Each structure stands twice: as structure tokens, then as C-alpha cells.
């Protein structure tokens, strides 16, 4: 059986089960092999009921004494409770909305359960399993599965339960699968790593804690090492290319634009500008990431870099993730470059066919010096006469492959400048942007108004909106952000559509209000944002579609409804839409959440506006899986490694990858692996 074979051909699965498994992302044999347990149950030691301790996890076996069923709550939740005994005491075990178990839980039946013990309410000293992790119904003579070892716990569904996954994975591991090594022998030996085949067995069915730790170390190292090899190869390929663009030192045009700026560059901006100039003046292509908080002044550096490439006889391109942001850059650059003789063009998917053709011709003939646009820039029809610099804005919205597609538009490899307003912790930077050199702008330019942030309960909503109305009447504009677009029966939250209707007919009657969300047509969104930009709309009710949006200096207030539904990075991006003008700005986070995690996140938001501090806190609170999804950065999800816990392992994997690039025999070992395993991310480097 091959690793690429469809999962339905594994014994015991078939088409119907395969369809259910596909919903979990399991399509092939290899997908099941790497469907790692989310947790483990150490069932090697049974605890007598009399020895249970409140709040501790334990495994207990006992005999069913009796059962009872009741209905509770507004949702008519059916609760089935069994009382089991083991001769030392009694324990209550409950199941929710599983009435079919009543027939199986007959008195005299043996039950094997793992969970957290708590004192039972009204149970006269009895214990109850408050968090049931797993259970097995046993016959009189039957021994529980995994009693003497550690059982894997998978992310399961009602139709694909733990027993199913344990059975199928065990069957898979018993087969003679073609599991070739993906780490060079020298790397495996140098870092004392368990063999790959052994690691797969131990990660699913570990004999003990030491075997589990060794398996996890091996597979996590493998993930991080391969990604680092790919990223470092991207960097090396660009550096070693003899087709790079070499720029001369700043000339008359650059000096003219810098002199015409209405402000002096901050120390941070000046330092990053020197790094950009140094890179652009080398004969190898620049690959630099500029991280800077919202409003830190990254765009002016992009402008200067584009001017530098133009005065050297080349063209520049800036790609933004939305048409709104691209058009904003186009208008700003056109205004700032007036009188310099530099021609700025605009390209998006919403131009007419005639406008498209005209722009294609102007770019190809070098009539346009700087072209600003959206994903339309990477279309096949776009051909540059002499592309010298590629700038991507809000890089977390683009994948590596998209960036590479634009880079290939030049006859020579152009310099690459990447900008992001999403601060990224150090370990995430190594993982996501390992192929780039990193610059940071830590301080905001002088004159930027600090944004004061407050957390308020829903009972303060009338006072909040009364204050917002007064500010609008004084000439300001405001955002109201909602987590949902429309009403959802499953979630008791106000939607953007509901809030919009409520506010425009209530608190903001007589004030022009607008609604903006992701399901609107592009032209509708453009019209609404343009009206808000031109101050024709005073209050904009929106979803997170405004996270990357137009610059509205007059917008000084933001109310975020049910703020606990957003991550810190997202809240910070949203808050960055205000405070962009000379007015005092306020962000009000509305939430009644009582969970400790939510309260901590919102408290951090109120305490600091430093995006880097918030990014570290967001990674700590939410974990890397939610912090940066694969769709955003174009890299595969990490299935075993955790960049929050595995910092040392990540640094070791990067060191190993750097050593691999120096040894041709190890590199030739790794390249075929990258071509197969990460072909979508690193296809364009495997011809090295």
C-alpha cells in the first residue's frame, strides 16, 4: 500500500467512512498516519474510588449499580447518569444527549472510565466525573483496552469515534508502509533523533512517556527542519542569482522626494531606509521584510524604495491585498510624486477590458514607472519592461507562491520589499519569513495621537453610543465592528446587519450610517468605503473587512461589539483604523465575557498599544495554530511542532538546515523530499 493511496482502500473504511474522514482533512493513507493524537490517556494505573482526589484526572473501573435520566435547561438537555462502584466507594458518571447508552448501561455491567474527579452535587460525599475523557463498556471477563499503557485521544466525531481511529491507525502501523527517511543520516545522528518509522508508532501508541517524548521530538524536528530548508533555499537562490538588479546610491530624484516629505524620517525609519539602500545597492536581489505597527510609517519607505528603482532606470510594482488599499496607495503616491516626472499606474480586477489592455501596454512599453495594484499584477498578461523592485503590502495576506509569481515578472530577479503591520513574535518570524531579512519599526512618528482603549459591559451601551453621537456631531467619524454579518440561530450575538438597523433608527437617527461586510459585492464595498473616506458616511457599521482598509484621518472612535470573539492581533489591527489624524481617539471594547482568557486578552488591549507586546501575548494565549493559519502565510500547518513551546527545537532545526545547505550530499537528499512533501510551497526552488 502506498502513502498516496486513497484512504477508502484501507480495510474497515470504504467510501462512506472515507467521505466522513475527508471532513477532517483525511484523504490519503499518509493523512491518517499524520493525524496525530490531540492528547493521551495514561491508563496504566487504576485508582480506587476511595482514593480519588477532587480536581485530579484518574482512571477507574467499576460495576454499574443504577442509572437515571433527566432533562435540564432551556435547551432540554438530556442527561444520563450511571452510579458505579468498585467495593471501595461509588462514582457518578454522566453523558449528555446520548440516550442510546441507557440500554447498554445495565446494572452489573463493568465500566472503565477516565476523567477529572469532583465532588458530586448532593451526592453525600460521592465523587462524579466532571470532565469525562473516555469510557469503555466491558464484559465480566474483558480487560480494558490500553489498561497497562497510554492510549491516544484523537479529534473525533460522533460517527468516527476513538475506537475507530485507534483500530484503523493500529492496522495502518501493522502494514509494511514505504516510509522512507526524510532526514539526512548525518542530521538524524547529530541531533539524536528516533528513526522515522519508530517515531510514527510511538507518537500514536507510546509504550511510556519517554518513548512519546522521543517520537514527538523527532517528528516536530522533521517538520521544522524541512520548512527551514525550503526557506533558506529561497533566500540562497535569490542571493546566488547572477540575474539580480544592482542599484546605485541615492540620486537626485530620491533626494528630491525626501526633501519634499512634510516630515523628517524617525530614527527607526532612517535606520530601516539605510538597510534597504544597502540591500538594493548589492548585486544580489534584496529580500527584506519590514515589520511596523499600524501607522509607523512603512509606506513612505516603500515610496522611497520605488523612487530609487525608477531613478536607476527600472520599474517598480506594489501589490496590496484589497482594491481599497491599492487605490489609496495609488492616490497617495500620485500626489507625493507630482512634479517628479515619475508615472504611476493602477491595475485591479475591476478595470474595464479596454482599461486593462491599455495598462498592459503601458507597463510593457515602460511608459509606467510604478504600477500599484491587487492580485491582478500577477496575471500572465502583465509583462514589465524592466522590473527592478517588488513591494508587497500586508504580506500576511499573500502566500510565498503569490510573491514568487510577481518576482518572476522581471528579466532579472528584482529586489523584494515585504511590509506587514502584523507584528510577529521572533519564533513565528523564523517559521513564516525564514527566507527574508527582517527590519523593525518599533516607534510611531511624533504627532500620532495615542488611542485610549476601554473595556465596558453591554449595560453601558446606551452611554457609549450617546458619547459617540456627541463626537460625530462635533465633526468626527466612527466605526462599529461586529463579529457576525447576519443573525445566526446557533450564536446569540448581534450581527452587523442587526446593529446597523438598530443604530440608524435609534441612537443615530438623522446621522448618515453605512454598512460594510464581506458578502457585499466589490463595487458596493468600494462605494461605501469611498463615502466614508469622503465624510459622507459618519458612522460605519462593519465586520473585520475593515481590518485592512482605507486611511480615514477623521475617524477617531471605534466600538467593537463582543470583543471577546476576536484575537489580540485582530483587535489591534482593527484599532489601527483610528488614531490616524490629529484628533484624540478612543476604542471601546464591549464584552460581558466572564472567561479568564477573554478578560486577560481585553485587559491587555486596554493596557498597551505596542503591537509587538500584543503579538507575544496573542501567541501565548491562543497558540500558534490560531495565530497564523496556513492560508495566510502559504506554509503548511505544523501538525506536531509548537513554535511557542519548541523555540529551542526550532533554532536547532534552523541550524541543521544551515548545515545541510553547506553539504551537497545532504542537500541532494532533502531536495526530492521538498519537491514531494511541500511542492506547492517550494516548487520553484527544487530545480536548484
From TrEMBL:
Signal peptide: none annotated. Gene3D superfamilies: Nucleic acid-binding proteins (2.40.50.140), P-loop containing nucleotide triphosphate hydrolases (3.40.50.300). Keywords: ATP-binding, DNA damage, DNA recombination, DNA repair, DNA-binding, Helicase, Hydrolase, Isomerase, Nucleotide-binding. It is an enzyme of class 5 (isomerase). GO terms for molecular function: 3'-5' DNA helicase activity; ATP binding; DNA binding; hydrolase activity. Pfam families: DEAD, Helicase_C, RecG_dom3_C, RecG_wedge. Residues 463-620 form the Helicase C-terminal domain. Residues 279-441 form the Helicase ATP-binding domain. Its EC number is 5.6.2.4. It catalyses: ATP + H2O = ADP + phosphate + H(+); Couples ATP hydrolysis with the unwinding of duplex DNA by translocating in the 3'-5' direction. InterPro entries: ATP-dep_DNA_helicase_RecG (IPR004609), DEAD/DEAH_box_helicase_dom (IPR011545), Helicase_ATP-bd (IPR014001), Helicase_C-like (IPR001650), NA-bd_OB-fold (IPR012340), P-loop_NTPase (IPR027417), RecG/Mfd (IPR047112), RecG_dom3_C (IPR045562). GO terms for biological process: DNA recombination; DNA repair. Belongs to the helicase family. RecG subfamily. Plays a critical role in recombination and DNA repair. Helps process Holliday junction intermediates to mature products by catalyzing branch migration. Has replication fork regression activity, unwinds stalled or blocked replication forks to make a HJ that can be resolved. Has a DNA unwinding activity characteristic of a DNA helicase with 3'-5' polarity. This is ATP-dependent DNA helicase RecG. The gene is recG.
Amino acid at each position: 500500500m502506498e502513502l498516496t493511496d486513497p484512504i477508502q482502500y484501507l480495510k474497515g473504511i470504504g467510501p462512506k467512512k472515507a467521505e466522513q474522514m475527508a471532513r477532517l482533512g483525511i484523504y490519503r493513507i499518509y493523512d491518517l498516519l499524520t493525524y496525530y493524537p490531540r492528547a493521551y490517556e495514561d491508563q496504566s494505573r487504576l485508582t480506587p474510588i476511595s482514593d480519588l482526589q477532587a480536581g485530579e484526572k484518574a482512571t477507574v473501573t467499576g460495576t454499574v449499580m443504577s442509572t437515571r435520566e433527566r432533562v435540564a435547561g432551556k435547551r432540554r438537555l438530556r442527561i444520563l447518569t450511571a452510579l458505579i462502584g468498585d467495593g471501595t466507594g461509588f462514582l457518578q458518571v454522566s453523558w449528555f444527549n446520548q440516550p442510546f447508552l441507557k440500554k447498554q448501561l445495565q446494572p452489573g455491567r463493568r465500566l472503565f472510565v477516565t476523567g477529572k474527579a469532583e465532588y458530586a452535587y448532593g451526592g453525600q460525599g460521592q465523587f462524579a466525573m466532571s470532565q469525562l475523557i473516555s469510557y469503555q463498556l466491558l464484559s465480566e471477563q474483558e480487560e480494558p483496552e490500553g489498561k497497562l499503557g497510554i492510549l491516544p485521544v484523537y479529534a473525533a466525531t460522533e460517527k468516527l469515534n476513538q475506537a475507530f481511529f485507534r483500530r484503523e491507525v493500529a492496522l495502518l502501523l501493522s502494514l509494511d508502509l514505504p516510509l522512507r527517511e526524510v532526514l539526512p543520516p548525518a542530521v538524524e545522528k547529530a541531533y539524536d533523533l528516533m528513526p522515522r518509522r519508530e517515531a510514527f508508532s510511538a507518537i500514536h501508541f507510546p509504550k511510556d512517556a519517554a518513548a512519546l517524548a522521543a517520537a514527538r521530538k523527532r517528528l516536530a524536528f522533521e517538520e521544522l527542519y524541512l520548512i527551514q530548508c525550503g526557506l533558506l533555499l529561497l533566500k540562497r537562490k535569490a542571493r546566488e542569482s547572477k540575474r539580480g538588479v544592482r542599484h546605485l546610491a541615492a540620486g537626485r530624484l530620491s533626494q528630491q522626494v525626501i526633501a519634499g516629505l512634510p516630515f523628517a524620517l524617525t530614527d527607526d525609519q532612517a535606520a530601516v531606509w539605510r538597510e534597504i539602500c544597502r540591500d538594493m545597492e548589492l548585486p544580489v536581489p534584496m529580500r527584506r521584510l519590514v515589520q511596523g505597527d499600524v501607522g509607523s510609517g512603512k509606506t513612505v519607505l516603500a515610496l522611497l524604495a520605488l523612487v530609487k528603482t525608477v531613478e536607476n532606470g527600472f520599474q517598480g510594482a506594489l501589490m496590496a491585498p484589497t482594491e481599497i488599499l491599492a487605490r489609496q496607495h495609488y492616490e497617495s503616491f500620485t500626489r507625493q510624486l507630482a512634479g517628479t516626472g515619475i508615472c504611476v499606474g493602477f491595475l485591479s480586477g475591476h478595470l474595464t477590458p479596454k482599461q486593462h489592455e491599455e495598462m498592459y501596454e503601458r507597463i510593457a512599453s515602460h511608459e509606467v514607472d510604478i504600477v500599484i495594484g491587487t492580485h491582478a499584477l500577477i496575471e500572465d498578461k502583465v509583462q514589465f519592461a524592466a522590473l527592478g523592485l517588488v513591494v508587497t503590502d500586508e504580506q500576511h495576506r499573500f502566500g510565498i507562491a503569490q510573491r514568487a509569481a510577481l518576482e518572476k515578472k522581471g528579466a532579472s530577479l528584482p529586489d523584494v520589499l515585504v511590509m506587514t503591520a502584523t507584528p510577529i513574535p521572533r519564533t513565528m518570524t523564523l517559521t513564516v519569513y525564514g527566507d527574508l531579512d527582517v527590519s523593525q519599526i518599533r516607534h510611531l512618528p511624533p504627532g500620532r495621537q495615542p488611542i485610549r482603549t476601554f473595556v465596558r459591559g453591554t449595560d453601558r451601551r446606551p452611554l457609549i453610543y450617546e458619547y459617540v453621537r456627541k463626537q460625530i456631531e462635533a465633526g468626527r467619524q466612527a466605526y462599529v465592528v461586529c463579529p457576525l454579518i447576519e443573525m445566526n440561530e446557533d450564536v446569540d450575538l448581534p450581527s452587523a446587519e442587526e446593529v446597523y438597523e438598530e443604530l440608524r433608527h435609534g441612537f443615530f437617527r438623522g446621522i448618515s450610517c453605512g454598512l460594510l461586510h464581506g458578502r457585499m459585492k466589490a463595487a458596493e464595498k468600494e462605494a461605501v468605503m469611498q463615502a466614508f473616506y469622503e465624510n459622507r458616511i459618519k458612522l460605519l457599521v462593519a465586520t473585520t473587512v475593515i481590518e485592512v482598509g482605507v486611511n480615514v484621518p477623521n475617524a477617531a472612535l471605534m466600538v467593537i461589539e463582543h470583543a471577546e470573539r476576536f484575537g489580540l492581533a485582530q483587535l489591534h489591527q482593527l484599532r489601527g483604523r483610528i488614531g490616524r489624524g490629529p484628533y484624540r481617539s478612543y476604542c471601546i471594547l464591549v464584552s460581558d465575557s466572564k472567561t479568564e482568557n477573554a478578560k486577560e486578552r481585553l485587559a491587555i488591549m486596554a493596557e498597551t498599544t505596542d503591537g509587538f507586546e500584543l503579538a507575544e501575548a496573542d501567541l501565548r494565549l491562543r497558540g500558534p495554530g490560531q495565530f497564523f493559519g496556513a492560508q495566510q502565510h502559504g506554509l503548511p500547518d505544523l501538525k506536531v511542532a509548537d513554535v511557542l513551546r519548541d523555540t529551542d527545537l526550532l533554532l536547532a532545526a534552523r541550524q541543521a538546515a544551515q548545515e545541510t545547505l553547506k553539504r551537497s550530499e545532504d542537500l541532494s537528499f532533502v531536495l526530492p523530499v521538498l519537491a514531494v512533501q511541500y511542492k506547492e510551497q517550494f516548487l520553484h526552488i527544487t530545480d536548484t
